[in-house]
Amino acid sequence: MHPQLAADLAALPDLLETTRRQAVAHLDGLAGAPVVPARPAPEPAPLPERGTGLRDALRDFTARWQPGLSASAGPRYLGFVTGGVTPAALAGDWLTATADQNSMSSLDATGQHLEAETVRWLRTLFGLSDAHDGTLVSGATMSNTVGLAIAREWLGERRGVSPAQDGAAALGPVRVLSGAAHSSVAKALSVLGLGRSALVTVPTLPDREAVDPAALERALQEADGPCVIVANAGTVNTVDFDDLPALAALRDRYGCWLHVDAAFGAFAALSPDHAHLVDGLDLADSLCIDLHKWLNVPYDSAVQFTRRRDLQARVFQNAAAYLGPLGDSPDLVHLTPENSRRLRALSTWFTLRAYGREGHREIVERCADGARALGETVAALDGLRLLAPVRLNVVCFTLADSPTADRLAALADAVAGEVFLTPTVYAGLPALRAAFSNWRTSAEDVRRIAAALAEAVRALPAR
């Protein structure tokens, strides 16, 4: 063994304790740290020819890289939809790296059994029936991609071909209909060989991001053959929800595939006050839910569900002598693009086991309360304009006067030490989004965010 490896192995308990103290100090400082530090990138360093061990590497990281890291695990990082990491999920992630399992085959099956239990718990959490089988993937983009890959194979089944075997070209033209599809849907269609142009945007309801069911029906009537419908259970800008029972009825009437992108909107199911938003979620043929958002487990983790695991295995089956057979209960290696991956289910198992449905319901409801309170503040604040109702956990707003992209960027920069907001465009207007999904966010954080916005708006140069 290399002498430096041997030395670090001998000193591992002490080195891990040093790392633990540094991790705890980082977490303890999140509440007061700049949310996005204004710090240039360090000067590039060459690859060391001879390493000097973990302790020196930790010192180098602490000096050069850690000061520039954002407080994305903290309570006022409201950009994108970014959760933090619950204490139980953090412990699960440490143990994931410690055990270093690649549980994709029944030849080494304990990790697969743990993932199966975790998926059953998730299915219960979101109110899904046993008709849905699930698999963990890296994020919502991959979840949407897997779901649409299954939909692609279903289209082939209807047309007497197998895209998995014969290629996407065997399908002929494909139409994927959606009112306000997430950008990952177009990326998935590109990856799957269906093409971005297969995505057809259907008109939405007035002043909404939810698809107009009447317009969708007209598009289905005009389509030449079976289509894929991509429904939204929580849009990015305003957390709007399609009428899933109505879309499922259209699916049945016209013989379509219904894929539901519920990346973070599915968590409405945990709250009695918001569960009606996801009525009909179980009717989906395939379903995307992100876990490193509102479940507050570490990146990267999501789950995909489908009613047609047989088609999923047809797409992703991997034939090799050293792998288990496909069978009626396919190993994980036959269900996603990955042949190997970490045991990402363990963090999810830990947080569900530690806090249960009740604990995660409290996180969802506290975040929804925070979004509602900030929305009320924005609506009442001179200089800002709320662009849509706060339906769940996102506040979408702009400047009341001269809402240009440059001025909104200046506003976001002015508050970046206190809160991280991301830009968007809604109804043709440049805007900002505040997305609440972190388990640590409190009413006091909302007050700090509101105060920072009020001060920044007052200081913003007039146009």
Automatic annotation (TrEMBL):
Keyword Lyase in record: yes
Q: Which cofactor does it need?
A: pyridoxal 5'-phosphate
Gene3D superfamilies attached to this UniProt entry: Aspartate Aminotransferase, domain 1, Type I PLP-dependent aspartate aminotransferase-like (Major domain)
Task: Answer yes or no on keyword Lyase.
Answer: yes
The protein's matches in Pfam families, at most eight in alphabetical order, are given as: Pyridoxal_deC (PF00282)
Q: Which UniProt keywords apply?
A: Decarboxylase, Lyase, Pyridoxal phosphate
Q: Which InterPro entries has this protein been placed in?
A: Aromatic_deC, PyrdxlP-dep_de-COase, PyrdxlP-dep_Trfase, PyrdxlP-dep_Trfase_major, PyrdxlP-dep_Trfase_small
Q: Which family does it belong to?
A: Belongs to the group II decarboxylase family.
Q: What is this protein called?
A: Pyridoxal-dependent decarboxylase
- The organism of origin for this protein: Streptomyces lunalinharesii
Q: What is the lineage of its organism?
A: Bacteria, Bacillati, Actinomycetota, Actinomycetes, Kitasatosporales
